[in-house]
Write a structure and sequence with these properties.
Number of domains: 2
CATH class of the largest domain: Alpha Beta
Number of strands: 12
Helix content: 40-55%
Strand content: 5-15%
Largest sheet: 4 strands, parallel
Structural class: alpha/beta
Strand order of the largest sheet: 2-1-3-4
CATH superfamily of the largest domain: tm_1862 like domain
Order of helices and strands: EHHEEEHHHHEEEEHEHEHEHEHHHHHH
Number of helices: 16
């Protein structure tokens, strides 16, 4: 058969990540001697005996009605973008097939030829990609991964490992929730490749054993965790204390915002979480739920994301200094960044007084000073006891 594959996210929004489902379909179908083509538009799809369309994101726009079987009898479609957490599984033989890591080669080559930097396409060219485990028991309301109520082994690493690729990244839903997580790390280390969990790891599950082992593996890039809710602060801090006991490596925490509310209380919660993250010398990454666009605080959400999601700013400047610095780069009387900050400060001076001037270097020293004081107290108590 002549088969066309369409990555809808790529065509609508652009995407830094290849579509794993399509790569598996391609690998399986090529093995069956079918002719496979990655389509870069929706034209002439009637010329293909079968069309597979996949999308990850619900907001991705598709210009045709893929559900119209009378008009498009050759189309099969799937992915969380269509079905959310009810997305049907791929057939077993396709799900567990080696991905076709060359599916996007022509697309990437053309993009680089027209001047796009190769670094943008590293996910397409450099990584073996897959799920070692699937499932999560958290059932977070903002997350599409609610299909399963536990974490289980999905596939061995060798199933998707390409020895010609530099590194591995995994899309596991909640890896640390898998009781036999150590066996997966053993498999990963046996490849002698650096690896990374892209979805983020669950800091609430951190133990001394996990911190010690995970800190010593050949990890690729930043360690990524999440701090979605301020109510979890004690558990998150307990986890961070264990983590920092074993490593000083760059660590990032996703900070969900604009989900439960989109007002000054949510802005305050963001700052509170940032302060905790600062104290353990970690980086926040602001994850804005789409509802932030309908908030009176929209400008503050934009400012916070621009400040935190660029470590060079976050590490050197307070939020206030960042906003003021933006004014210096424009000829406008008052730039939007500074205006958003000033408007919020006028309405909520108590939040501004508490958080706008906090800095990474000062807050990270705060926790160090506490630890030094605690150590001195222990030494003093031990001396008294010995005396």
């Amino acid at each position: 058969m002549k088969i066309g594959l369409i990555d809808s996210d790529l065509l609508d929004n652009g995407s830094r990540h290849p579509n794993l489902a399509l790569m598996k379909i391609s690998g399986y179908m090529k093995e069956k001697d079918h002719e496979i083509e990655l389509l870069l538009n929706y034209d002439n799809i009637d010329k293909y005996e079968k069309i597979y369309i996949s999308k990850v994101f619900e907001f991705t726009n598709i210009p045709i009605d893929v559900t119209d079987k009378n008009k498009y009898p050759n189309i099969e479609y799937g992915g969380t973008g269509f079905f959310n957490d009810k997305a049907p599984d791929l057939p077993h033989d396709i799900e567990h097939h080696m991905p076709d890591y060359h599916l996007y080669d022509a697309y990437v080559g053309n993009e680089i030829a027209r001047g796009i930097k190769p670094l943008r396409f590293k996910d397409y060219m450099d990584y073996s990609i897959g799920f070692a485990t699937r499932g999560c028991f958290r059932k977070c309301s903002f997350c599409v991964n609610k299909k399963y109520d536990h974490v289980f082994k999905h596939s061995p690493i060798k199933e998707f490992f390409d020895k010609n690729r530099k590194a591995i990244y995994l899309w596991d839903d909640n890896f640390l929730g898998f009781p036999e997580w150590e066996t997966v790390l053993d498999e990963l280390e046996a490849t002698n490749r650096a690896f990374q969990f892209r979805q983020g790891l669950d800091m609430r599950l951190m133990t001394d054993k996990i911190a010690k082992r995970l800190s010593k593996v050949k990890y690729h890039g930043d360690y990524i965790f999440a701090f979605d809710h301020l109510k979890d602060r004690k558990t998150i801090e307990d986890g961070l204390k264990l983590w920092r006991k074993y490593t000083t490596k760059t660590t990032k925490l996703y900070v969900l915002c604009a989900f439960e509310s989109q007002d000054e209380n949510d802005i305050k919660s963001i700052f509170q979480r940032i302060r905790i993250i600062m104290r353990y010398k970690c980086l926040p990454y602001i994850m804005r739920y789409d509802s932030y666009k309908n908030s009176e605080c929209e400008g503050m959400y934009i400012n916070l994301a621009r400040w935190c999601n660029q470590p060079s700013f976050y590490k050197k400047k307070s939020f206030r200094e960042f906003c003021i610095a933006n004014q210096k780069t424009t000829s406008l009387k008052k730039c939007a960044t500074l205006r958003y900050m000033n408007e919020f400060e006028e309405k909520h001076p108590e939040i501004a007084n508490e958080f706008f001037d906090m800095k990474f270097e000062h807050e990270s020293l705060y926790i160090e000073n506490i630890e030094v004081a605690a150590d001195k107290l222990c030494v003093k108590e031990n001396s008294i006891m010995q005396y």
